[in-house]
Amino acid sequence: MIIVMSNVATEEQIESVIKRIEEKGLEASVSRGTERTVIGAIGDERSLDPELLESLPGVEQALHIVKPYKIVAREWHKEDTVIDIQGNLIGGKQIQIISGPCSVETPDQMEKSAKAVKAAGVRLMRGGAFKPRTSPYTFQGTGVEGLEMFRKAADKEGLPIVTELMDARQLDTFMKYKVDVIQIGTRSMQNFELLKEVGKVNVPVILKRGMSATISEWLMAAEYIAAGGNHNIIFCERGIRTFETYYRNVLDVTAIPVLKKETHLPVIVDPSHAGGKAWMVAALSRAAIAAGADGLLVEMHPNPCEAWCDADQAINPQELISLMGELRGIAKVIGREIL
Ligand code: PEP
Ligand code: MN
């Protein structure tokens, strides 16, 4: 860390900063310039809080020089991490598409969905049993019963399941139903207690980006999970809030190469919650794969007009088939593959 002292800082103030640094077990290297003094803190600077140092008299600015995140940072782990979900790899050469309805509704809807997922050549299935809804008066998900329906329908087609966890109290139930990937939704990205809990289990996690989260906040959220011991984390860009109201969110395509640079973990994109309309899904999916995403999370419903949740953004089974064809072509051009 670098601590820049104010140009009127006294010798006493400089000494007190040095003392703080040394108390934390770091070494202080003092550079006295003609204008001002700059102090370098050498050692594991993560134990130093820049805000605390900036509150000391005579300090103008304190700046970290290494990243505040560690386990998830590419700086510490150069190679891409490939996550194995029941034999389906994500983060390597292969691009994985995950598809299914927004929410688990009925056994029949789940059976049709699983068949459509399988028929399109998609290898992983999504579906929310516990739904984070803006209004408490709308459908809240089918809950544990939904998990049961989901597991049954997916097992019939041999598909691993991805579903959202909103409450750590449901974690044991998720284990009981052998949820293959735990999804942490945009509204929970900074629920640090929930992140700590999923950090303790040995199940891959999809961490969606908070709707107004910066890249750094998102990486720090992943670090919470990783710090608990669970390093199988997949980032999912799902659109961010901006001033634009034409579409539900703005797909931040820029986040894809930025995250690929900052972390060794896989990065996927949810084109459905980004655009919020079924007709935008194909275009946003193509953009995401072309920009380097390792996969997609796409909402598909056997009968979109009758979906209980997010009906206008669900594509139908036929659209999923044609989307897969297009994506295979793009994957090939960029030296990747969709099996
Ligand atoms: C979802 O994928 O079902 C969902 C609720 O998405 P998000 O958390 O991105 O809004
Ligand atoms: Mn949805």
Explained architecture:
This protein has 339 residues and is of the alpha/beta class. Helices cover 34% and strands 18% of the residues. It is built from eleven helices and 14 strands. The strands form three sheets. An eight-stranded parallel β-barrel has the order 7-8-9-10-11-12-13-14, surrounded by five helices. A four-stranded antiparallel sheet has the order 2-3-1-4. α5 links the parallel β9 and β10. α6 packs across α7 (215-227). Phosphoenolpyruvate is lined by residues 102, 128, 132, 164, 185-186, 208, 238, 270, 273. GO terms for molecular function: 3-deoxy-7-phosphoheptulonate synthase activity; aldehyde-lyase activity. Keywords: Transferase.
Q: Indicate the low-confidence ranges by residue numbers.
A: none
Number of strands: 14
Strand content: 15-25%
Order of helices and strands: EHEEHEEEEHEHEHEHEHEHEHHEH
* Biggest pleated-sheet summary: 8 strands, parallel, barrel
Round the Cα radius of gyration to an integer and report it: 23 Å
Could you give me the name of the CATH homologous superfamily of the largest domain? Answer: Aldolase class I
* Fraction of residues in helix: 25-40%
| Strand order of the biggest β-sheet | 7-8-9-10-11-12-13-14
Number of helices: 11
Instruction: Enter the CATH topology name of the largest domain.
Output: TIM Barrel
Could you say which small molecules are bound to this protein?
phosphoenolpyruvate, manganese (II) ion
What structural category do the secondary elements indicate? alpha/beta
Estimate the global geometry from the Cα principal axes: elongated
Oligomeric form: single chain
CATH architecture classification of the largest domain: Alpha-Beta Barrel
